[in-house]
Design a protein that fits this description.
Layout (H helix, E strand, L loop, with lengths): L1 E2 L16 H10 L6 H15 L12 H4 L12 H9 L8 H14 L3 H27 L1 E2 H12 L4 H5 L4 H23 L2 H15 L11 H9 L8 H5 L2 H17 L11 H20 L12 E2 L3 E2 L9 H20 L4 H12 L21 H17 L3 H25 L6 H11 L4 H13 L3 H14 L5 H12 L3 H15 L3 H13 L3 H14 L4 H13 L1
Antiparallel strand pairs: 1-2, 3-4
Helix pairs in contact: 2-6, 2-7, 4-5, 5-6, 6-7, 6-9, 6-17, 7-17, 7-18, 9-10, 9-11, 10-13, 11-16, 14-15, 15-16, 16-17, 19-20, 20-21, 20-22, 21-22, 22-23, 23-24, 24-25, 24-26, 25-26
Amino acid sequence: MVENCTSNSCIVPEGRNESLLSNLYYILKNPHSKCLLWNSFLVAIIIVVFGQVVYFDFVYYDDFVYTAGKVDRGNLWSWDFLKWVMTSMDDGFWAPITKISHRLDIHLFGYKAGGHHAINLILHVVNSLLLWRLLCMLTGDGLVQFLAVCIFAIHPLRVEPVVWIASRKDLLSTLFLLLMLMKYVQWVGEGRKRDYCLSFVFFVASAMSKPVSMVFPLFLPILDFLLLEKGEKISLWKGFLYIPFLIVSIILAIITLHAEQEAIIPISLSLMERLSRMVISTALYFLLTFLPVHLHTPYGTEYFPLFGWTKGVPVYDRIDIVLTSLIIVTLFVVGWVSLRRQYRKNFASLCIFLLPLVPVIGVIPFGHHLIADRFTYASHIGLCLLICITIGGLSKKVYNLFNTILIIIVIVLSGVSILYVPLWERGEKLFRHSLKFEPNNYVALCNLGFALIKQGRCVEAIPHLQKAIEVYPYRAGPYNDLAFAYQSLGRYKEAINLYNKSIEISGEDPEILSNIAFIYYETGNYDLSREYAEKALSINPNLINTKKILELLEDKK
């Protein structure tokens, strides 16, 4: 049932004198993480589910900001670009490797979104193969490991991190996390210093890909706990070996708190509201892992699958939702740890499931989302471990029964994912879907409005942007987009008022000043047009359109 991880089932055992078909049947009957045939099968399954993404466009929900929006930072190989990458926190996080990755995409594919999507898909394939190898190292090799990886690879919660170009950071950080864990397991087993050093290097790379990596060093004592023989204890000297990882983690946490200041929601939450938010978030991650329904992005604070839209009341202020969430968390935790009474191993897999979620469950409320599918990407390593631990040691008859159930689950989840993926084809389709669940979803309203403006449908965009401002009037984005919509329709007075409101909120932005300069030029107020154009160029002297406005003004003299 479960083979040793060092074996290779793509090789027929010596002395087996059977026909070619019989030997092929033997290989197909014994999946193995080193077998090229089985690896190809896994890759094929992933491509069937996600392959369509290479034909998708940017959704402009951060995609353009992270990719084309960084072209003006300089050439990929220039010192200016590398200096910016290593010091920049202008996207609300410090992630040099992720930013280099996006800039490399622009270098290779330009503004053709298909290439960017293809890189995400390739990274997901690599991560799935690495996870299979890690599960093999921890739990042995067999059909259950393959099926566990399939569940990880095609789960509907994978759609967001794979299909959304801006979620590259989740794919990269998990890639390096898996490499870190694999090298650490090899070091524990073989004692080679080189493996320990490589494990640390991979952790640093993960930390440079996404800030949530700050919790990844805590995986190491969990792995030690998981690998302990009965009666063994973690030695004190091994505890000292965690220190380099923890130092990097603390530094990353400090950088992240500094960088994320703009993303922290400027609202006052009581301690009870924060605790309620954390309980609800955790319950949702459990619930959507085992029952992935009503998926959309982003999940606001006015929606819970079992209760629907709460019509303006945050879910953490609804006592019935908080109590239901508490019951869900309790049931899942108790059930998870108690499976087959393998308390130690189950507890370790539960910790691996929960750890990547700790920074994002609402201790500090970042952004306008309550949860996000992408945050489960690394978390589901724990789910795969649970499956392997629970089923791997069963009798042959029961083992085969549970594997049959897993195959059915893989087929069902694949179908759900295949149906969900096309919603990410275009921003308009994605955010109209989100607004079906949460009509007051601020991010969906902003992005739907922007998507419509990009298509020249400014009249349709206006009510969505007006509603976004009504829901959350403290960010400049929807004011800018609404002003641009009015400007495009020739409603210049309304546009200028909104641009000025945006400047009040976020300070003087050269692009906004340039837009105001253009409006004054169009309305014949050349003095004010010149004033705003010169002010814009004093902030950013590289604005081509602003220079053209000044050239036109010179011709008017």
